[in-house]
Predict the 3D structure of the following.
Amino acid sequence: MHYRLQCLMCNARYPADDPRALCDCGSLLDVAHDLAALRGSVSRQLFDSRRGEWALPYRSGVWRYRELILPVDEAAIVSRPEGNTPLYRSPRLSQWVGIDDLTLKHEGENPTGSFKDRGMTVAVTQAVRLGAQAVACASTGNTSASMAAYAALAGLRAVVFIPEGEIAYGKLAQALAYGAQTLQVRGDFDAAMRLVREVCNALGITLLNSLNPFRIEGQKAIIFELLQQRGWQPPDWIVFPAGNLGNTAAFGKALYELKEVGLIARLPRLAAVQAGGANPFYRSFLGGFRQRERVTAHTVATAIRIGNPVSYERAVRALRWTDGLVTEVSDGEIMEAKAQVDRAGIGCEPASAAAVAGARRLAAEGVIQGGRAVVAILTGHLLKDPGATVDYHLNRLEGIEATYANRPRVIEPTLEAVREALAESA
Ligand code: F0G
């Protein structure tokens, strides 16, 4: 194996297949690849030659890059397959955001409707390799939906911990449908996260939150695939929503490694976007990362309603590597951006729209300058959170003015009534 586990803080090393979740010092672990060896063995041509494959594993937009992710035998891989998500452009949306060269990479078009599938295929594959019988996670909804599906595929028992009444309906439906044991915790996500860590420790269950370094390895493929789709030409900026900071961590590691192995020559800048009511990372950023901040989180974007993100140190490192930054947007800005992404015919869930709202804000502030190439990552599908969408269009979201509401109307079943309705909205 050309990798090992390495502590982010004290640099302690462990063998590749050590089933531990954390370092002995309590800090997060990294999958550390032998980048010097990989420099000679991976190339753009290698990855390009696997494009368009019908068969697993290279059909997967994660396992196509397996040398840089987890070099395991094909037979061990648990895959849907995931990835191969499209890039979208919309002149109408570009204009609204104020960025001409704006591309959206839609990670909501993964098998279970979010980017989590990329991390889950790798973490579940590794869990099975190491003999796990049961897996667990705390979640704001998407991780649990994804884990439930991949656990079902692999024949593992799945236990999910979700904050009671705080996850979107589409996601709750998925966890139940895929057969995960679903525990609704009286408390917020951060409380559920604390609990699942204790439970996994005490009961020997494998933890599949992004604490798990193999989740991070899989999520790197969002960046690998994005770069490959752009002919390996990096954009100037990559903008994305940030909650538990797994993606922030994964994006930084992916870019650093791509440069180290010689696949790209320069790094785009990362811009992590938080909801104003769930902004601990933004607060830490404002303080130059001298202190790790925590908050009690509230936002309409339930996916990122997180006050104490677990991948904090990894995410700080990612921003240092990429000269990155953090910004925040209000719930009103999030829902406006969502209405615009939806209206462009693309669609996403509220947390994803934070990326677009953040790009718009950074452009208005002049931080992202005209002419720059910007990619925003949409993390989840429109249908994940039908409640937020319908409530917006009915102007029922507290404290949010539905500027772009598309109200449904009730009419009598007559031609005259239809004529009237069409004339009114013409
Ligand atoms: N967007 C969506 C749709 C998400 O579901 C999440 C996280 C994020 C963005 C933030 O990504 O945590 O890597 O910073 N959802 C997790 C979950 C927490 O449980 O599904 P992050």
